[in-house]
Write a structure and sequence with these properties.
It is extended, with a radius of gyration of 59 Å. Strand 6 and strand 7 (about 100-105) form a beta hairpin. It is α+β, with helices and mostly antiparallel strands. The strands form 6 sheets. Strands 11, 12, 15, 16, 17, 23 and 24 form a 7-stranded antiparallel sheet that branches. Strands 18, 19, 20, 21 and 22 form a 5-stranded antiparallel sheet that branches. Strands 1-7-6-3 form a 4-stranded mixed sheet. It has helices at about 1-35, 110-120, 145-155, 470-475, 500-665, and strands spanning about 35-45, 45-50, 55-60, 65-75, 75-80, 85-95, 100-105, 125-130, 135-140, 165-170, 175-200, 210-215, 220-225, 230, 235-240, 245-265, 265-270, 275-290, 295-315, 320-340, 340-350, 355-360, 365-380, 395-415.
Length: about 675
């Protein structure tokens, strides 16, 4: 019994925790299910509806600036895309389950893709959205299409930096290059004239008079009580009369200057690539950094001189679209600034930038960059300085005139792929200066030796000169020891010839044999040289044949390229002709429609004129009827008035006739 009660109590204590553990497990399962996310793709400015199987209790967005969510019904959620990006959307159900969505808002690039297909047919260009960026990828045929496609995509983003251009130009033969010949000509002319005079007396004066006259434009002498008359500048003319104690200093200078600067840079660059040129230098100027108490001066170098930047683009029809920016700058010490002991010169700069389109070899000039300035100063003593002739002695004048003109002439040339000097083989392999020779010239045989008498060789005739056994063995075993026989050296004998001994005769015979062998060896060497020359000639002929074949192949390739260009030109001409025919047909059709419209308008106008004429005739007839009626009415009224008048006249006559008879009766 006690055991049963204990088991019952144990079951009661264990069941609630197990039930709670089951609920926790269910919630854990729900939480695990909540980790499953769904992908929702939206376009900027578009909306989508999410339908759920449970009522929605709460909605949360990680970034409301990218997308917005609105609960329309308990089971439907409206999501609207605002800006490109990816966020998380959490939706709570009434059972506590959380459903997660990854909302990716992208740009609508359908219009951009349609424009790319329309403007660049046949080009493999894809446009995709990556956050706020638009990525262009693919392989195109020219650099022009790369730039234009990037410019087209800028209109679909907020900033130009949001366009990622991954377009790559199609690999093919080397592109054309552009050679730019530029001539800078700068002519600077200056003229200067200074004229003035100052009069003065000596330090003791003339009589009781001491004086000085000056316009203060040029330095004039002055009086000092200790030093007397002090001159700061004698100018260029000084006159003094010691008897009269009267002097004058005259400033009379006139100068002219001419400066011409010319630079002719030649630059070559690839189609679409920028090139720059600078002929000049760099000058240092100080830059103050930090505060006034803890400031430091650093030196920075700034460039000056003749600078040129240009970017060429070669079009299909052979035109050169050139963007050029020439600049000429010089140091101007007249406007220099002194900073902490440093004299920093200014820069006189003439700069221009333009874009033109030229043909190969055409020249355009940039002129009119003039800089003219003139400074004139005139000072005079009032009154006396205005006298016509005498007044020139009491006035001073200085003027300076500067004139600078810059002319830039630019001539572009297209360097074709097959032009001389442009080859893909540069720099090439190293080639030896001289080819190694197959012939080796051995050392000449020993000479001027006489083992028998050991006498000086000058006393022994050439024909009777003995040969040592060592030399004989060398001659027998090495017949190729020399290339050509040694020429005999005539030696004048110092003593009369003696009778030859047996040894001398054998030596002479051996010398003859050696001479014969040498002749045979020379002939053999000559034959080998002829054979080698023939081999070299054959090699040269084969090389010439290969070179001719190579040239023929190059000419064939060039002719094929020209044929393709001609075919492309024919296609373009045909296209232009078709477009012209289409334009003519459209013009004829338009003229026909205009003629029909005009004809219809004429008919309508005629109908309107007819109706107007009928209406006018009816109105005129009605008016005539009204006039007739009025005339009839007036005629009737007149007849009535006439009848009334006639009646009245008749009555009057009756009255006038009956009046005398009555009078007579009275």
């Amino acid at each position: 019994m006690k055991r049963a009660v204990a088991i019952f109590l144990l079951v009661i204590m264990v069941l609630p925790p197990a039930a709670q553990a089951g609920q926790v497990a269910a919630r854990a399962a729900d939480a695990v299910g909540a980790k499953d996310t769904e992908q929702l793709d939206l376009l900027v400015g578009r909306s989508a509806i999410i339908k759920l199987d449970r009522p929605i209790t709460r909605v949360s967005l990680s970034t409301p600036d990218i997308a917005d969510a609105l609960v329309t019904t308990p089971y439907e959620l409206l999501v609207h895309g605002k800006t490109p990006g990816t966020i998380s959307l959490l939706v709570w159900g009434d059972n506590g389950r959380i459903k997660t969505y990854d909302v990716a808002v992208k740009r609508d690039l359908s219009n951009l893709e349609a424009q790319i297909r329309k403007l660049f047919p046949g080009e493999e260009i894809t446009a995709t959205s990556n956050g706020k960026d638009v990525v262009l990828a693919g392989v195109v045929s020219s650099k022009y299409i790369v730039d234009r496609a990037s410019s087209l995509a800028v209109g679909y983003v907020e900033k130009a930096e949001n366009v990622v251009n991954l377009l790559r130009q199609q690999d093919g033969p080397a592109t054309n290059q552009v050679l730019l010949r530029v001539r800078f000509a700068e002519v600077s002319r200056s003229a200067m004239q200074e004229l003035g005079v100052s009069f003065f007396t000596g330090p003791n004066g003339k009589g009781d008079w001491i004086g000085r006259s000056t316009t203060q434009q040029y330095p004039a002498p002055f009086f000092d009580k200790d030093k007397g008359l002090v001159f700061s500048d004698f100018l260029n003319l000084f006159l003094f009369n010691t008897e009269e104690q009267l002097g004058a200093v005259v400033k009379a200078l006139k100068g002219k200057g001419l400066f011409q600067s010319l630079a002719e840079p030649n630059l070559i660059t690839r189609d679409g690539q920028e090139a720059s040129f600078l002929a000049g230098g760099e000058y240092p100027y100080p830059v103050t950094q930090g505060t006034a108490q803890n400031g430091a001066v650093t030196i920075v170098f700034k460039e000056f001189g003749v600078r040129l930047k240009f970017t060429p683009n070669v079009t299909i029809d052979g035109m050169i679209q050139l963007k050029v920016a020439p600049e000429v700058s010089t140091l101007d010490f007249g406007n220099a600034v002194v900073l902490q002991g440093f004299r920093v010169p200014a820069l006189a700069t003439r700069r221009t930038e333009t874009s033109v389109e030229l043909r190969d070899g055409q020249t355009f000039a940039i002129a009119g960059m003039l800089d003219n300035n003139m400074n004139e100063t005139l000072r005079r003593v009032p009154g006396i300085g205005d006298i016509p002739i005498l007044g020139y002695l009491f006035r001073s004048q200085a003027y300076q005139k500067n004139s600078t003109e810059l002319v830039v002439m630019i001539t572009p040339h297209i360097v074709r792929r097959d032009s001389p000097g442009v080859t893909p083989n540069l720099p090439g392999f190293m080639q030896p200066f001289l080819e190694p020779s197959e012939h080796k010239i051995p050392a000449p045989p020993p000479a001027f030796t006489n083992p028998v008498t050991m006498a000086p060789q000058a006393t022994v005739p050439q024909a009777a000169r003995p040969v040592s056994p060592a030399s004989q063995s060398v001659s027998a075993n090495a017949p190729a020891a020399f290339a050509t026989p040694a020429a005999p050296v005539p030696v004048a004998p110092l003593a009369p010839a003696k009778p030859q001994t047996k040894a001398e005769r054998e030596a002479a015979a051996q010398a003859d044999r050696n001479a014969k062998k040498a002749a045979e060896l020379a002939a053999q060497i000559e034959r080998k040289r002829a054979e080698q020359q023939a081999i070299q000639d054959r090699k040269d002929a084969e090389q010439a044949k290969r070179d001719g074949k190579k040239r023929a192949e190059e000419e064939k390739k060039q002719s094929e390229i020209q044929a393709r260009e001609a075919q492309a030109q024919a296609v373009r001409d045909g296209e232009r002709a078709r477009q012209a025919a289409k334009a003519d047909a459209e013009r004829v059709e338009r003229e026909k429609r205009e003629a029909e419209i005009k004809k219809k308008a004429d008919l309508e106008q005629q109908e309107l004129d007819r109706k107007a004429a009928e209406r006018l005739a009816a109105e005129q007839a009605a008016e005539a009827a009204r006039i007739r009626e009025a005339a009839d009415r007036l005629a009737k009224e007149k007849a009535n008035r006439d009848a009334e008048l006639e009646r009245l006249l008749t009555q009057y006559q009756k009255l006038t006739q009956g009046q005398p008879s009555s009078t007579s009766a009275r």
